[in-house]
Amino acid sequence: KCRDKDSHTTHTHEPHDAPRCSYDRDCKKLNDPYHRAAYRHTGRPDFLQPCRYQKGCRDKTYDHRMKYSHGEEVFTKSSSSSAAAAAAAPSKEESEKHESHDHSEQTPCRDGRSCRDISTDHRKQFSHPSTTTANRAGNKSKTPCKFGVKCHNFDTDHRADYSHPDKS
């Protein structure tokens, strides 16, 4: 909760009841606005500050992306802070991927939500708004992923085996 609401009248948001990231200070996803909205980190604000250039920003450095947001819609109208808190703890597979993946090398994909490249190499190189490419025909017959819209596993095999709801 905000401790000094009276002096921060321009900062308006609901209390952020999100679980603490299991990696906390060692987290490598501090530059991911979706991760930052879903999990709390010691010594870090719950929400990123908006960058003045938003989607037109050319600064792709990890340090800049760790501090500023660029127009990402981290909470849709149907989601809430309790929905973020309901996100389950990462699976063993997701944890291993989190540890081994170097997020400082990721650049936001220019196609964003419209990206159709689900290859593992592309997903390792570029960051994407959560769950967009898996919502193709055939999702209805797949087992729903337990992480739903909060899933960060873009592995081709995972996306082929599990369905992910569309955020729109």
TrEMBL record:
Residues 77-90 have a biased composition (Low complexity). Residues 1-25, 72-147 are annotated as: Disordered. It comes from the Eukaryota. Residues 91-124 have a biased composition (Basic and acidic residues). Residues 127-142 have a biased composition (Polar residues). This is Uncharacterized protein. It comes from Adineta ricciae (Rotifer).
